[in-house]
């Protein structure tokens, strides 16, 4: 599994990654995320993942929606330490990954992320 990191300096140290997985989750739920926080939001049974937009390196963006198979790119990033995963809002994506996508859709354990991307 990739090393967990959120600091810019750690990101700079991982520039040598073989591949970079960029991702962004879109969700919907009745609880006010800004008031309850991402952990409570993610574990609420009514919170839904709408889609995941992702790309590897500079390749075209792909879209995952519930019902699709777990993308091979996510399995590879979780298993291969030479991959780096990035997200604009790292705390949100990691929490959704661990608390919503993994238990409900069988995604691999958290693909560690770096802020940025």
What does this structure look like?
The chain has helices at residues 8-13, 33-36, 38-43, 72-79, 90-105; strands at residues 19-28, 48-56, 62-64, 83-87, 113-115. The model is unreliable at 1-14 (pLDDT under 50). The chain has a five-stranded mixed β-sheet. It contains five helices and five strands; from the N terminus they run αβααββαβαβ. The chain is of the alpha/beta class and 117 residues long. The protein has one domain. The two termini are 19 Å apart.
Record keyword descriptors for this entry.
5 strands, 26% strand, disordered N terminus, 5 helices, alpha/beta
- How far apart the termini lie comes to 19 Å
Unreliable stretches, pLDDT < 50, 5 or more residues? Answer: 1-14
Largest sheet: 5 strands, mixed
Total number of β-strand segments?
A: 5
Can you count the helices? 5
Global Rg? 14 Å
Average pLDDT, to the nearest integer? 84
Shape: globular
Strand order of the largest sheet: 3-2-1-4-5
Strand share of the residues? Answer: 25-35%
Order of helices and strands: HEHHEEHEHE
Output the structural class.
alpha/beta
Helix content: 25-40%
Give the total of domains: 1
């Amino acid at each position: 599994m990739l090393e967990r990191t959120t600091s810019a300096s750690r990101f700079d140290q991982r520039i040598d990654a073989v591949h970079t997985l960029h991702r962004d989750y879109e969700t919907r739920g009745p609880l006010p995320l800004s008031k309850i926080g991402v952990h409570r939001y993610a574990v609420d049974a009514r919170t839904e993942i709408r889609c995941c937009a992702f790309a590897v390196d500079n390749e075209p963006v792909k879209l995952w929606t519930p019902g699709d198979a777990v993308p091979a790119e996510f399995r590879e990033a979780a298993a291969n330490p030479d991959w780096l995963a990035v997200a604009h809002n790292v705390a949100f994506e990691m929490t959704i990954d661990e608390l919503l996508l993994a238990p409900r859709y069988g995604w691999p354990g958290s693909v560690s992320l770096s802020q940025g991307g």
